């Protein structure tokens, strides 16, 4: 039989990014957490964590993390059927892209969280890389742009978010007087969410430009729009987020008619229990655009 206290220690170390913070989360000393990890490795006969250059689960550790995520979800269903087991609130760790979090996510999941007393531990990841978190066992579910489910998981299409290349009218007049030309793209500062964000590159390729371009890095969806509204650059902004400023004329497309469609998919482990099924159903009611 597996000792789930050991698996919980492993999950806490990975989620918290260290032994000391994992101990704080579990109400244990750093030494106690370290001893649990060591006991797990002795029982397994192989390491479950790589300590350097950065703390990360080994392939065996990832398998165990996948397992404990699913067990925790199934335990939640059992607590609902047998409420006297304990009164702890259910918690889900989910990877979500920043643009969804800034627009439709809260409205979609809020009713279920209030009804179930559900606590959500959100990990903000670009829509192109969130699936890695699920594969590594770090999250129970994720939103991402990949339609291909990983082994043992399900994938549900949620819809498409439409991105427009937006800037202030003054910025557009200054940097794109002749429209979206290669020369303008070569010199006009763009705004990019982070090192994994490929939306800007896809837009430029769609416009026929594949060269280098200057850019600001801004890992905040709200800050991203704030930089654009301040005239610091142009960037790919979801239509549903930008509508108020577009309607008031504060933001406008630098390439009218050019948009980028990004599909979103909800990935979660099979046999994860009723709570994930209900969350999936709630997300299915969202009208993305």
UniProtKB/TrEMBL annotation:
Residues 2-58 form the HTH lysR-type domain. Transmembrane segments: none annotated. InterPro entries: ArgP (IPR017685), LTTR (IPR050176), LysR_HTH_N (IPR000847), LysR_subst-bd (IPR005119), WH-like_DNA-bd_sf (IPR036388), WH_DNA-bd_sf (IPR036390). Coiled coil: none annotated. The keyword DNA damage does not apply. Belongs to the LysR transcriptional regulatory family. It comes from Halomonas campaniensis. Keywords: DNA-binding, Transcription, Transcription regulation. This is LysR family transcriptional regulator (Chromosome initiation inhibitor). GO terms for molecular function: DNA binding; DNA-binding transcription factor activity. Gene3D superfamilies: Periplasmic binding protein-like II, Winged helix-like DNA-binding domain superfamily/Winged helix DNA-binding domain. PROSITE patterns: HTH_LYSR. The keyword NADP does not apply.
